[in-house]
Amino acid sequence: PLGGRLLFEAAGSAQLPTTIRGEKNAATRPMITFSSNPGTACLYLNQARQVVKDFDVEYTGPLQTADFLIYMPVDSCHAIGMKVNCNDNLRFGIYANNEGCVVRGCEVYNAEEDGIYAAAKHGQLIEENVCHDNAEDGIGGSLTAADHLNKIIRANICYDNGSNGITVPVGNSDGRRPIVESNVCYNNTGDGIRITAANRLNNIIVRRNICASNGGYGINVPDETAQYVSRLGELECFIYDNNTYNNTSGHANPSDAADAGNPKVDPWSGTPGSGDFRVNTDMKEAANVTYLGLAATQVNRLDIGALQREEPAGGGTDEGAEGVQIGGGIQ
Questions:
Q1: Is the pLDDT assigned to residue 276 strictly greater than 60?
Q2: Is residue 265 within 8 Å of 245, Cβ to Cβ?
Q3: Which of 140, 196, 260, 294 has most Cβ atoms within 10 angstroms of its Cβ?
Q4: Sign of dihedral through CA atoms 74, 29, 104, 34?
Q5: DSSP string of 148-191?
Q6: What does pTM read for this prediction?
Q7: How crowded is residue 256: how many other Cβ atoms within 10 Å of its Cβ?
Q8: Residues 64, 41: contact at Cβ < 8 Å?
């Protein structure tokens, strides 16, 4: 147990890579508990290329209004295989706030706002995480962001969050080419995936996601960006090969763009309400669907939703994101 925060800072100006890690497959994972006001962040990675890996962190102190459990404000920091519990008293579980940051294989929950916040920086990779029971988005980002060059949000499971499963910010004059693929967004209060733009949509790819049983739309391009939706084909913005099933407000908004060519079938062989997100055979059958804006281009519907596979013939399962098992933490 720690009262304040851990600040990882290299001696002098060397800024050498530093890793703090637990044991990946230990019977009991190490845990650091933060029990009082941490200031900016509980676990503060303050130099480039620092890594936290394979242990649990939680905050048990009083309600804070401007803090993070794990904060990565410099480039190329990594959070891998972490279990992050904010206990509803910190705004963000993991805050990636610089270029090249990686958040992979983490479970992030009970944040006062977003589970993972991917700020407006280039080259970030957010993949194979499970974000649930956060008060706002499972994975969020700046709504007026200008710099999202080559940002990838892939193979995450976002469920039971108080707003959207994933919010995709797109800004500047060309959209900066973010890719959102193979995610599962289930039973979130708002939209499964919400795309927002400060200027126009361009070069964004949203593909092979499952957005099911959300309180809003499966995929929503809201009114402030609707003027650009009719130009999606011209601007090379592709929203395709997603399964938008059983969402309260509808499959997608607007239906003539975000909904085009996307299948709408029950995806589950497991029981997602109990944490089993395995897909059924209907989701694995190849089918011709149309790229938005490229009617002549046909693709196969493969690896849809968190890169899942059917149960292998030899037994065993791939539950949730590829390489991640839900239950008893993250493996």
A1: yes
A2: yes
A3: 140
A4: negative
A5: -TT-EEES-EEES-SS-SEEEEE-TTTTT--EEES-EEES-SS-
A6: 0.83
A7: 12
A8: no
Instruction: Give me the count of residues in the chain.
Output: 331
Q: How far apart are CA 180 and CA 155, in angstroms?
A: 9
Contact of 143 with 157, CB cutoff 8 Å: no
Whether residue 141 contacts residue 117, with contact meaning beta carbons closer than 8 Å, is answered with yes
* Residues 6 or more apart in contact with residue 295 via CB below 8 angstroms: none
**Distance (Å, rounded) from C-alpha 141 to C-alpha 131?**
14
- Please state which of the ranges 11-20, 134-143, 216-225, 245-254 shows the lowest mean pLDDT: 11-20
Handedness of CA 57, 62, 65, 67 (dihedral sign): negative
Which among 269, 127, 263 has a CA at the least distance from the CA of 208?
Answer: 263
Query: Is 284 within 8 Å of 251 (Cβ atoms)?
Result: no
What is the per-residue pLDDT for 58? 93
Which has more confidence, 203 or 186?
186
Q: Cis (ω within 30 of 0) for the bond into 254?
A: yes
**Predicted confidence (pLDDT) per residue in 16-57, tens digit:** 667 888 876 777 888 888 887 767 888 888 888 889 999 999
Structure tokens at 56: 């649990």
The predicted pLDDT at position 310 comes to 36
**Per-residue pLDDT tens for 145-185?**
455 567 899 889 999 999 999 998 765 545 456 788 889 99
For residues 82 and 55, is the Cβ–Cβ distance under 8 A? yes
User: In 3-state terms, what secondary structure has residue 7?
Assistant: strand
Residue 187 has pLDDT above 80, yes or no: yes
Is residue 197 a contact partner of residue 170, using CB atoms and an 8 Å limit? yes
DSSP for 248-297?
SSEEEESTTTTTTT------BSS-GGGT---B-GGGTS--EEEETTEEEE
